[in-house]
Amino acid sequence: MSANGTAIRSGFARGMIELRQAFQGAELINQLLWPVLTLVAIFFYRHREFRDTGVELGSLVLPSVLGMFVALGLIVVMQYLTVEREDGTLLRARATPHGIRAYFIGKLFMTSGCVVAYLLILLVPGAFMVSGLRLGSAGAWLTLLWVLLLGLVATQSIGAALGALVPSPRAAGAVTLPVLAVVSISGVFYPITALPGWLQGIAQVFPVYWLGLGMRSALLPDAMARVELDQSWRHLETAGVLGAWAVAGLLVAPLVLSRMARRESGARVAEYREKALQRVG
Question: Which of 26, 102, 202, 275 has the most CB atoms lying inside 10 A of its own CB?
């Protein structure tokens, strides 16, 4: 079997094990917490109208938060990498043939599985809370699929690159703040057209806005596009921006991960543990 085939098979097996662990015992509560809290927010939004347009905010918010949860996979991958670099997991992966590549593939698979579970937790009960979703259309599911696939690759590969660059889990926590700031201006909980033009421009640089727009274009009737920028779903722009981020992530992440792995050693892991103990003390 080729090196790539071996890495993919090993990564898939690793990802399956980690995915099962993520939904067992106390971890299950952690996985359910944010989707359930988000459903509560959608429940209170469900009958609010956006600027006398006749469009219910709940119908806009539900697809938008699906995109948000895809984007937040970036944070999950980044946090896993920083923690597992310090506890020696990454060093052990480096010691096996094609270990870093398999580790990367496994982490993407596990995080993607968690994200898809979040989307189902949100979409199934959410469909009964809000009106106007076009869940019976094959075209809607096709659009949702390509937006989801591009979004998963784009956000998680960038998250892996960031996780390889930040020096510690505490630093990863600091990176989370600007990510959440981008989410707040990306039209997730309120249409982006209500924001100043300069904020709209900033939001459109990042994948979060386009993920929300792509999900809305998949699940909402075409008439709902009237509250969007240019009154259009902008599928070509969505594919272009998400595709550009995905290509950039796939090019950068393996290089940065390999560079980081070469620097890891038993002495560095011991140093990480010593610093962790000092922080606890």
Answer: 102
Element of type H or E holding 166:
none
Using a CB cutoff of 8 Å and minimum separation of 24, what contacts does 33-40 make? 34/69, 34/118, 35/69, 35/118, 35/121, 35/122, 36/121, 38/65, 38/69, 38/122, 39/121, 39/122, 39/125, 39/126, 39/129
CA-CA distances (angstroms) from residue 19 to 107, 114, 167, 172? 9, 7, 26, 22
Dump pLDDT digits (tens) for 163-180: 888 877 778 788 888 988
Instruction: Provide DSSP, 33-86.
Output: HHHHHHHHHHHHHTT-BSTTSS-BHHHHHHHHHHHHHHHTHHHHHHHHHHHHHH
* Both tokens assigned to 181: 């700031």
pTM for the whole structure: 0.88
Domain extents for the chain? 3-276
Structure tokens at 17: 């094990």
Whether 182 and 67 have beta carbons less than 8 Å apart is answered as no
Place of tokens 């219910």: 56
User: Over 80: is that where the pLDDT of 16 sits?
Assistant: yes
Residues linked to residue 49 through DSSP beta bridges, in sequence order: 56
Taking a C-beta distance cutoff of 8 angstroms, is the pair 158, 74 a contact?
A: yes
Reported as a single tens digit per residue, the pLDDT across 66-93 is 999 999 999 989 888 888 887 777 777 7
Copy the structure tokens of residue 191: 């249409």
Residue 18: name the closest of 149, 112, 145, 156 by CA.
112
- What's the mean pLDDT in 207-231? 91
